[in-house]
Amino acid sequence: MTNTETALKDAMGSIEGALGVALVDYGSGMALGTLGGSQSLDLNVAAAGNTDVVRAKLRTMEMLNIQDAIEDILITLGGQYHLIRLLTGRGGNGLFLYLVLDSRRANLAMARHQLKRIEAELEV
Amino acid sequence: MTAAPEVLAELEGLRARVPHLTGAMVASTDGLVIAHLVTGMEPDGVAALTAAALGVGARLTDAVGHGGFRELLVRGEHGYVATYAAGPSSVLTLLATADANVGRLNLEARRAGARIAPLTGGPADRRERAAAPPPPSRSPLPSRPGHRPGSTNPGNENGVSS
Q: Which stretches does UniProt call biased (Polar residues) (chain B) (predicted)?
């Protein structure tokens, strides 16, 4: 079991090509923790914006009558991958991990696998 | 007030951009409405209550040594009331439903507050625009006399005359 800070450090340190990571509460749209980012990548803005992405998907599933849960969401940009992974269980309900990757350096399959491990170990 | 149409345009922009927003208002720190988009309630009453809450909030941040007033967020059973500093003499108050994205609300309202500040006569709030961590700030409200001697001369501390 790891805490938020350790999980974010783990994500930035062990995932190749990571540019920034945040743990976000999509009930409020606010980040519980952020690491990395830059002048051009404000993770608090990303937290608020991606909250809308997650909520829209959940609403769509509800309208389609799909009785299931989102495991992760992948957004592919020209030069970046954005990975959203929803937390499951242990008080992590209503939270997601948000990871920004440099697509030239990142291995998407490996990044997704590692983020899944970090999420599984994370206790909020 | 002559700036009201521009302030109102700013509020309309906010309403268009921020989902779950049910009302928006700009008021002076002493509780007078400058512009509002509020329906179903009396804006004057909301502005007066905002001023009262603001007074307590500013005193509280001052008392614990956290500088001037920046924001006040109140969550009720059915929604949020959030007040943001908009220059030294006015505040922006937003009403939102309980499922509002508060992160987004904060981001949009801080930017709007910085844009509204020069319209309501105060100097543009450079702290919100600066990328660096904000320097210790003075309160938009007059502090308690004698408590913080450095902040009893509003409007002139930064060498900016309004």
A: 152-162
